[in-house]
Write a structure and sequence with these properties.
Length: about 220
């Protein structure tokens, strides 16, 4: 029988979640650079000292928000990827990418959090690890669908595909909009990049491992 969770543990998890949500709200309202532990404590309705029971600093709060949401997005993308079939991969992948954007925006992975990765070193580390896991998902998908490319080649392709996700965020940042056309362009370019992986090997076939070898997803 599973051990019951104590009321103290449940309360601690609730307070921690409240602090994280408050930090995200403060970032949305005041901007990334304006966030302080005092502002977060005020929004969360807790004492400033309570924040340090859960996080060493404000950067740690933001990093955990970012990492948690990226993990949720990866799980969604991986589950959807497993349903894609070779005969209809273009349509199914396009639908999955649209659904993934809806999902991640729905859970609060917004431009506020993504932009924070430009300011905090820990977030850059998390983003880099996420890009490798993202690329590894494409390695698994394309190998399953019958690509003759090596894992290293597919991993490199996956990293290129990931840059298109960042391009969508960049487009929204530069235009100060959230136009769906950016997602549609990402989809078109993703499919364009993938198509050669089913037809022939890359012109510059590399026998050596890339700088960041594939990382197995959990």
């Amino acid at each position: 029988m599973a051990e019951k969770r104590s009321p103290v543990q449940a309360r601690s998890r609730k307070i921690k979640a409240t602090i994280m949500e408050a930090a995200h709200d403060v970032m949305r309202d005041r901007g990334i650079r304006a966030i302080t532990t005092n502002a977060v404590a005020e929004r969360a309705g807790v004492k400033v000292g309570s924040i340090y029971d859960y996080f060493p600093n404000k950067e740690a709060i933001i990093a955990e928000i970012y990492e948690e949401k990226l993990a949720q997005v990866r799980s969604f993308l991986e589950a959807g990827s497993q349903k894609i079939e070779r005969k209809a991969w273009r349509t199914q992948l396009a639908d999955l990418l649209r659904d993934t954007w809806s999902y991640q925006l729905g859970i609060g992975l917004d431009r506020t959090i993504v932009d924070a990765s430009y300011y905090y070193e820990d977030l850059l580390r998390i983003a880099r690890a996420h890009s490798q896991l993202f690329a590894s998902n494409y390695v698994q998908l394309l190998k399953r669908l019958g690509s003759p490319w090596s894992e290293n080649e597919l991993f490199d392709l996956g990293i290129s595909i990931y840059t298109l996700v960042n391009a969508t965020w960049s487009y929204w940042r530069l235009t100060e909009t959230q136009e769906a056309i950016a997602i549609e362009r990402q989809i078109t370019l993703t499919i364009t990049l993938i198509e050669p992986a089913f037809e022939a090997r890359p012109h510059n076939d590399r026998d050596t491992a890339p700088a960041n070898p594939p990382v197995a997803s959990n």
